[in-house]
Amino acid sequence: MSFGARLSSRLVAIVLRVSVALAAWLPLRALGPIGSALGFVVGSVVRYRRRHVEEAMERAHVSAPHAVASSMYARLGRALVRLLWLAGRPSSCEDEA
């Protein structure tokens, strides 16, 4: 593995650890709005694979693909933040999940 690849792997690991720690610090009620905002940024601002998603929905005859895609990105953002939150919680807090 090259130096650049090792550095990239370490950087990704650091970002994930920081993300988990930040998410675990959040109260449960904050996860939904933060996840929805993340989904909005990824799906509407950055537009990560947005055209591909909407074209696939059109081919599948999904009604209102733009609205459905927006909802999908919001739900994915909420799920990701919830997963990070669960990963960072101590095992003694499992009853909250």
Written description of the protein model:
There is one protein chain. α1 crosses α4 and α2 (28-45) packs across α4. Helices cover 77% and strands 0% of the residues. The protein has 97 residues and is mostly helical. The longest helix is centred in the last third of the chain and has 24 residues, at 65-88. It is built from four helices and no strands.
Keywords for this entry:
single chain; 97 residues; mainly alpha; 4 helices; flat
Short description:
With 97 residues, the chain is mainly alpha-helical.
Write the layout of secondary structure elements.
Blueprint: H1 3-25, H2 28-45, H3 50-59, H4 65-88
Helix pairs in contact: 1-4, 2-4
**Helical segment tally?**
4
Uncertain segments are: none
Determine the fraction of residues in helical runs and give it as a percent range.
Answer: over 70%
Based on DSSP secondary structure assignment, what is the total number of beta strands?
0
- Main beta sheet strand tally, sense and closure: none
